[in-house]
Each structure stands twice: as C-alpha cells, then as structure tokens.
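Sat 14:20. Reprocessing the chain from the morning session after the first attempt stalled halfway. Input below, unchanged.
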Amino acid sequence: MHGNPRLAPAFQRVRERLPGVPELRTRTFAPGEDRWYSYKLTALDEAVREVGLPGDFLQLGVYKGECARFLHARMPADRTLYLLDSFEGLPEDWMGPWKKGAFALGEGELPTFEPANVEVVPGWFSDTIAGVAARLDQPLALLHADADLYSSTFEALEGLDARIAPGTVILFDEYFMQAGNDFRDDEHRALLDWCTRCGRDFEYLWKSEWVQVAVRVTR
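Finished this time. Tokens:
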C-alpha cells in the first residue's frame, strides 16, 4: 500500500489496534496527493461530518497549515477556527527522527490565513490555552489534536476541559505511532489520563487506515 515493503509490518501492527473500531477507507482529494496526507485529509473530512454541536473548531499543532486550510474549507462558515502552535517545534523529543525542535518554522515561513473566521494563536499551549478557553462562549464542536506528544496533548485537553462537552468530536492525528521499531501511544494515553483526571468518558467513532482516530465525548 505504501510502495515500500519495509513499512508493511509496522503499518499492519498499528492498523490492527483498536479491534472492532470501524476503519475508514482512504480517499484522495487532489491529483498526486501524498499518501500520508490522504490519511489525514480523509480523517478530517469525516470528522467534520460527525460534528453535531454548534460551537467553534480548534486545532492543536498547525505547522505549515495544509490541514488547517482543508479543515476550514469544510467547516460551517459561521464558526471560528482557532489554530494553536508555538511554531518553535516540539518542546521535547518525541520518537524516531522527530526530536526537540522538529517542525519549527523560521521567520517568513509562518502560515497566514485570510478568512476572518480563522485565528492563529502562536505560543506554547501553557501560555495560550487558558486565554482561548476563556473566550469561547460554548463547547467546542471539533478539536483536531495534532500535538504528537503526551505532555502537549494532555496539557491542552486539561486546559480546554471546561469547553469540551458531551458531543465534542476529538480527532487525534497520531493516536498510535510507529517509527521503525519505536512505538508510542502518546495521544492515546493523554486521552485516557484526561478522562481519569476530569471524570470524562468517550466513544470511538472510527480509525483511519494509519494512525488517525476519532472519538466523541460522552461525559
């Protein structure tokens, strides 16, 4: 499927997790689209279809903004899309080749967005989450969690807890992740620990053919 037979075992190991959770069929949205983005975009497209609450949308981790633009094009026009990222890269080592500082952008590389209902919030989550949460006047409709790390994901979920309600859809971009022999479940553990800490619960909606997983908060 990937065109690289060495990836097949790792691909299958991740794909077999969460048995019984429905798996999306991967689609492409542009000619010559990178397969890795096809997984992401398929998941985003489906996540928007799951939205039932009237609140705003928020994305954790923006990088160059490809997924944010795709998400904005599909969300209702009367919602705001908040985009949170330090743009200074990962605050600590993650896995495989992604070390502290990975995904950092230099001056002049930061993504820009013209639509008035898109707000970029630069800075570390510890400095920005509380302010964004205080400005929201109703629960989030969709949270796209692409922060990779356990620490960043848990910090964001805990900080946004008052603005997450039954019905909020959370899409994790690397719920489980495999890089060579290195396996991590950072976003999975962050979700479970947030539920324990804040008395929350959820239901699985579906998973992608790779590492994206969507849940709906139920409590």
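The two ends are 38 Å apart (CA to CA).
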